[in-house]
């Protein structure tokens, strides 16, 4: 499936940012040239996490698995452009499935492992998925059971595969197929008869860009490789290095920056399922991780725990910031051999990466072209502040700002077509093709001579709540909570983090009977099969939901009310 326009393909191909190689072709060359080098290593605790025995695969064994699984799926009738939902933790199996999708022209749709049945069904219906690959469980989450229940109600799902022990009845076990690489014939092992284009869609991720509900965004091989190569220009990731991947694959950080990048350059991929920071750092020491990605807020705590061995082996440390560059100073120390790189995630629509220049500050973003470090004539991305000129004209204040808009080699121009649709809905854009993000920014410095204009992201303009690595529209959560029969009115809000703890979701409810409402409200969420991430950590009861004259919930007032109630 092609979603890129001919104009996009011509522009980015002629500049050298896009090419003709699919991800599987790139990896196959590594397998031919370095067959016995280690390629993929699982977290040694994977079995307790997902029911799958940890794998340790060389390049040639990985490629044999790719060929074996491709032949099996082709044999049962799976064809190019089939959307395959994937609920698999970061693992060797996930990498193999990605390479299989690349080789066959399948479209992967990684879905969060904690998704409840209602959310899972909604996502499957949105993208018209025909197959699902899942793990048997994830921690305490009964992933395979949920998948089976949803698939039983969806006639469009043709195949449901499971990887791991104790899978529910009715699911096809892929474990034996994946482990049967020795059955692959040597003849034709590296033949590539497929004519799938590198501009065809490889993966779907959901983005909350704009005030609308999160939309499925399909990206081609070239767009995903552009993300990976743009970020790793600054890390110097190479085939001799070990990349440590712990972010889940349902986001661009885990999928593109973590997995695709390592498969592209032929680095050793060490997967890790994050539980505690101490366990994470022990694994870094044990397996020699050299390139890591961490939430920005964890850096101070992680830095204090790093043993000398890890400090000396690290090459790059990428710190992730979601939509906002903190105004206050950030932890400045870096007593390691690694360079610090700040990675700003603009709602999984695009990423901005830069080497930390001022120790205690996340750098501002250049206005205009974001050029390649290796070839300044190549432009990875362009930024534009919508409404900036109006802001400058209408205010005497020194603070001038606007809405962040983006375009570039990693950004699509339309959403993935909803099931049954021929074309995807065009993303809201300016006349010049810049995609709106609804992220507010203010100008830090004006352009002056060789000095670039710089701006700082301040956060969402829309009513979007961010908590625990997730984002949800506030109005969607309000409506969900209000639908409970014992609730008269409701609003969701997020209590900010304290001392590096994650922000957590809360609910304010207006009810008649407070004594029974709490129990009935949580019973309602359970009956509705709502994802655990949408369950509020706690509840406060209020006489009325504070709203502005336009009806918008005043969520800041609810935060204050929770503090008064001593709930937060």
Biggest sheet, spatial arrangement of strands = 16-21-20-19-18-17
Strand content: 25-35%
Number of strands: 26
Give the quaternary arrangement of the chains.
single chain
What separation lies between the terminal Cα atoms? 48 Å
Helix proportion: 25-40%
What CATH calls the topology of the domain at 50-196 is Rossmann fold
| Helix count, DSSP H or I runs of 4 or more residues | 17
Apparent shape: globular
Which structural class fits the helix and strand makeup? alpha/beta
Mean pLDDT: 88
CATH domain class name of the domain at 50-196: Alpha Beta
Q: Low-confidence stretches at least 5 residues in length (pLDDT < 50)?
A: none
Quick one: biggest sheet?
6 strands, antiparallel
CATH architecture level-2 label of the domain at 50-196: 3-Layer(aba) Sandwich
Radius of gyration: 24 Å
Domain AMP-dependent synthetase/ligase: 27-167
Organism: Cohaesibacter marisflavi
Pfam families: AMP-binding
Protein name: Acyl-CoA synthetase (AMP-forming)/AMP-acid ligase II
